[in-house]
Predict the 3D structure of the following.
Amino acid sequence: MNSNLIIVEIINSRIFSVLSKDLKFQKELEKELYQNKEKLTTHKFILNKKPHSPTIENWIKDFISQNGSGMFNNLILTKYITNSENTRNLNKTEKKLVQKLLQLYRNLKFFPESMPSDDPATWEIIPVSHDIEENIAKKQIGIPQTQEEKNIQKLKQEEKKYKSEGLEKLVLEEKIEKEKKIDDLKIEAKKYKDGSLEKMAIEEEINKMRD
């Protein structure tokens, strides 16, 4: 739930890729979500009038106990986040986590009805917070340029030769954006251990962009 925006977008892409070939995958993901024992928050948590661990599983159970198991809209979600006994003492960050979890639950359980439009480009299973700041490391002066930065520099020099409306300039702009994204992905990959799911997902995305 706290993953970097790039990671979330890659995982969303993978989920939809698998869903397009195997509809059973949706039920498998639902089961994994419902049985997830990972703690989501830190404050005391009451379920069925008894103390419980504030796990992903129990947060979903608490929401269902108050709002039923049917499709729900953003108004119902907002009321729960604002007024629920278990959410009242949460700080802003943890409330955001609970909100994202319940959006994930809705997106997955009620797919494709839960998708915002008929345009697949707008679809997501894991909520993507486009307003959050990226935690990609900033490059410091004196650090040698990466290969992608060198490529971008060359492409920008080439770009100056063409008119702003020209096809050649548009092609070069696309290449520059791709090099920037690859560079960001490489920086992000360094944060994870070799063999980890996150690192493998990023490396796969880089390879696809290089093909």
Q: What stands out?
A: The chain has two domains: 5-122, 147-210. The longest helix spans residues 167-189.
